Amino acid sequence: MTTDASTSDLRIVRAVDGLDLALEPLQGLWSVEQYFKLTNQTNHLIEFTDGVIEVLPMPTRDHQIILAFLYELLVLLLRPQGGKVLFAPLRVQLRPGKFREPDLVVLLDAQDPRNQNDAWLGADLVIEIVSPDRPTRDTDEKPLDYAEAGFLEYWIVNPLTATIIVLVLDDAAYVTYGVFARGERARSKLIDDFSVSVDEVFDAT
């Protein structure tokens, strides 16, 4: 089964039996259970907010190379310390009725009860690689979402500007810990030993 990646023409297409189902009329009416069933049957990244689903574009090669580079660094650092690092597709609940699929998510303790099989119920650190189709999704909208969810740190890795912005939670909102450009090392406030060369991140592609 495939899912059309356009949020203005959401369709389920299954060639084996000729199924062609329009999803747009259901916007605002989806239940969490239906969202789970849908995402269990497609390889597209699909996010959910209060009955509305959004199908995200397929990641590019460069996006996936950057993701893999950061994932490997985090795993090497955190696995010996008992942490858990995962990557999309993985449903992450921000609050009841709202799910995102961040590029990378970190729990500092793998035994954290938020580490659930069907969906994580939160995270300590989250990383998004900005998508060119709608950059404001990652730069403007998700900081509000992730702050509301209480994620302690949010990294915005932006290939469009060759910068990495690190935001840290201060009460209920994010403040900028650093804006790191080429020639600098982006560093985490939450994880003492985690830093990365901005050049190496964007040159990995």
Automatic annotation (TrEMBL):
Its recorded name reads Putative restriction endonuclease domain-containing protein
Residue limits of the Putative restriction endonuclease domain?
32-197
**Coiled coil ranges:** none
Q: What InterPro entries does the annotation carry?
A: Nuclease_put_TT1808 (IPR012296), Restrct_endonuc-II-like (IPR011335), Uma2 (IPR008538)
Q: Which domain of life is it from?
A: Bacteria
Record's PANTHER family? Answer: SLL0198 PROTEIN-RELATED (PTHR34107), SLL1222 PROTEIN (PTHR34107:SF4)
Q: Which organism is it from?
A: Candidatus Chloroploca asiatica
